[in-house]
Amino acid sequence: MAAAAAQHRIAPAVARRVDAAPDSPSSWRGTLRTKRYEQLLRHMQASGDLQVLGGVLGDSEIRWALGKGPMAADLLWPAPDMREYYDVDVFIAPADFERALARLIDAGFVYVDRNWPELRRTMRAEIALRGPAGSHLDLHWDIAVPESLRGAFRTGLPEMLRRSEEAVLGSGTPVRVFDPVDTALHLIFHAAQNGANRLMWMADVWFATRRDEFDWELFVQRAEHVRMCVMAGLVLRRVESTFDPVGDGWWPLTRRNPAWRRFAGAVGRRANFPSLPGDKHAGGMEFSSARDTLGASVAQALVRTWALHSIERREAKSPAVDRVLHRDVDDAEARADYFEGVRRAATR
Asked: Model pTM greater than 0.70?
């Protein structure tokens, strides 16, 4: 039980249910309770760092919003100690990114990603920081982190930030968050890019789309604009097969790329979601490779397969983890080039 809950990142939620069941095995309680307490600690750390961040960015003209982790825990899930997360994702308009980063560093945040030549080479749309309270902060200037994804999808972070709303977390911390439709699109995009193979990600989407203010017609319009019709349809189908139906407002998405949808269905039956520890076929590439045309989906699947095999060969030669971005390479020219690339992204 504990291993399966950990695999699907739902151990804190399962801990609440196990604690409430008088006949649950005592062997489950200790491990699950520890996971729940660890999540409460991370949530308190995140709340402390978000208070600092809100003070730094809230009184400025910097456009920003909080996504996923603490937002989902406090505003989507039934209780904040149910949603497991390990980092805080904050999204900054590309035109404001360098200025926001400088202000956060002045406020006591420190760099985790420090390899500026590697950041320039990859043009990843995030930089990892450590907050004063100890939380891990990923500062994003796009919801699509790899450069290749930003060419495949029209993610449009500045537009999402213009539509963002004020919210107050359970700690009393004021933040900005994406509107309900953009929140669901972002959660679906993140789940799909990671294989849509964890129950926590499916629960995120289920809770997000069941809000009273959620607008399915607007969701379909934005999914079409972003080129996420097939991806969103696949994730929503998995959400419905896992939980209760979310309604029929998303069905227009299923009209796109029916051949890939059938392929994904066949892979899904083989993967047998939700998987258990030791299962060989957790699946996921059918989600991460999904595009609105069959040709683009197949091409992306081939690219991802080649990349996966390359990683496996590299790890077979050197199993030690080398976090290249964490190397301290303070190259002023690479740093300037990176931020110039971010500014160019703001004009596209």
From this structure: yes
